[in-house]
């Protein structure tokens, strides 16, 4: 894996953070494979990009309206030439005075052509993390 590959993988989360801040569910979902395996912090399973988009559109219109996500990519571990494991801890900062929420995601990303996307994603709230 080259430094540009690692930068491109980290760029996935930069896109997600921008989309979150804008409340743009389509942009948020654009970083996932069409047939992604996605598990939310609540254990909800989604198996298509459009489901991820619809779920985040609801979140951005309600509980997370005006919030922002601050991701910290902590691990990019190659699993092959076109596959990598990624660990990301994110803080979701609400628009109001409510406390921030910390999440941790484990993802598998793959390269198709010149771009990387998320093929599997499991998000959770770490034990002892602020909610």
From TrEMBL:
Residues 9-118 form the DUF4440 domain. This is DUF4440 domain-containing protein. NCBIfam families: SgcJ/EcaC family oxidoreductase. InterPro entries: DUF4440, NTF2-like_dom_sf, Steroid_delta5-4_isomerase.
């Amino acid at each position: 894996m080259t430094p540009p590959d690692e930068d491109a993988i980290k760029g996935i989360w930069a896109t997600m953070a921008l989309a979150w801040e804008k409340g743009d569910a389509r942009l948020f979902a654009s970083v996932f494979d069409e047939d992604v395996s996605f598990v939310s912090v609540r254990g909800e399973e989604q198996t298509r990009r459009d489901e991820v988009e619809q779920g985040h559109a609801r979140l951005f219109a309600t509980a997370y309206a005006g919030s922002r996500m601050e991701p910290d990519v902590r691990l990019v571990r190659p699993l092959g030439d076109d596959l990598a494991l990624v660990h990301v801890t994110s803080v979701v900062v609400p628009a109001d005075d409510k406390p921030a929420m910390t999440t941790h995601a484990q993802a598998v990303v793959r390269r198709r052509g010149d771009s990387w996307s998320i093929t599997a994603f499991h998000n959770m709230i770490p034990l002892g993390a602020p909610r």
